[in-house]
From TrEMBL:
It holds the Pfam family GT87. It is a multi-pass membrane protein. The chain crosses the membrane at residues 47-67, 119-137, 149-169, 181-212, 218-245, 257-277, 314-336, 342-361, 382-402, 417-440. Keywords: Cell membrane, Membrane, Transferase, Transmembrane, Transmembrane helix. Residues 10-20 have a biased composition (Basic and acidic residues). It is found in: Cell membrane. Its main location: membrane. Residues 1-20, 485-508 are annotated as: Disordered. Belongs to the glycosyltransferase 87 family. This is DUF2029 domain-containing protein. InterPro entries: GT87 (IPR018584), UCP010361 (IPR016570).
Amino acid sequence: MPSAETTRTSAHEPDPVRPTKADEVAAAGSELIGGPLGRRALLGTSWWTPARVIALVAIGVFALGLVQKAPCYNGAWFFGASSQYTHACYSDIPHLYQGRGFADGLVPYFDRLPGDMEFLEYPVLTGVFMEVAAWLTPGSGSIQHQEQWYWMVNSGMLMVCAAVIAVCVTRTHARRPWDGLLVALAPAFALTATINWDLLAVALTAAAMLMWARGRSLAFGVLLGLATAAKLYPVFLLGPLFVLCWRAGKWRDFGKALAGAVIAWVVVNGPVMLFAFEGWSKFYRFSQERGVDFGSFWLIMAQNSSDPLDTETVNTFATLLMLLCCVGIAALTLTAPRRPRFAQLAFLIVAAFIVTNKVYSPQYVLWLVPLAALARPRWRDFLVWQACEVMYFLGIWMYLAYTTSGDAHKGLPTEGYHWAIGVHLLGTLYLCAVVVRDILMPERDVVRRDGDDDPSGGVLDGAEDVFVLGAAARPPRHAAHFAVPQGPQVEWGTSKAADSPPSPPGSL
């Protein structure tokens, strides 16, 4: 039986959203584990809180992803170029252990690598992560044995990142903890988690989103700065946050977030920048010099053109397209009938970068998974998108199998791979479309339909608008004007609460 204090606390909290009651796909899926939980279930008032359950699920699904890499671990990474593609188990991690000097004890950014690469082509914090894993890797035995250990050590560290991501998403929307299952059960998440080191930046970004939701602007900035020191994409979140704070007049909070991000990034990058500038700048030079590559619509254009665009021209056009997307998102933010949720815009800006970029590695889907769970926590749309990403995951490996199998041509030809790229792009654009629809029609937004305003918005949650454009300027500008009630304004004990006692915090 829950304690009196627990009962007293829950009596003053809004009723948690149970996805198996509010989402028909979640309800149907729950039949696999015995059906939806009833409102009297005590899950969430005992040790089995939603965060702990979801963390364990995330670890379990991550472990299944490790099992999927078994054919490569047992030899495909080392003995056959095409077999690691036909088994769809490729990973950069074991190959870069020797290829980037970790097996020889070279220090990233400071020691020059043999060959054309010259220096490690990853941001500094990711390089630190790789180096720590190398320290933990036994240096005895054959190089194959060391590479296997290096992948296992990295996998263990990345598993911690995966659990952090799932828990942060679970706690970001206080009334929707079970949305974290979208992350924990995402098939593309498990398939791509150990291809590269992206989960480090994703975990820091998810933690930053949680801090912003809790109103801790400086902590958000520090974590976002660290995430940007691990991967470039997190810095784009500052753009929509700037426009949201402009509309709500929250300049002080944005200033603290920006200052925290800049300081954290400089603290990590400053020493390497000062003492090994050539090695530090390799990531940024490589990003500019890299030609059109896998997964982008630019590749489709290049492979179907007799005179493809050069790299500099593609860089210019890709930058212009991204800037157009930024302008469009800013206009949407300032003219929407109700201020968009931060998670919605965060998803849109990162998706815009992915769609317009000249390369799309299969692990880039990890950037979007937690943002999608917060922006559009609807199982149907999420699974449609995930199905498209899984098809692309299989498509790229089958295409590489085709190109590396010689005259046998085992795999997917170029035309088939173009269709796989198209499926990925359509899936991402579909999810963007439903998020934009939710912004333009707030009554369709499942988060706001459940009574919240912007649970991941921190100081923006329920705030009054001070600057809007177009049609948004005509109606009264306080969020309470809209028919959907604000989460923080709900008080149990009257109206609905008097007729229907709240469910326990963890009820599904």
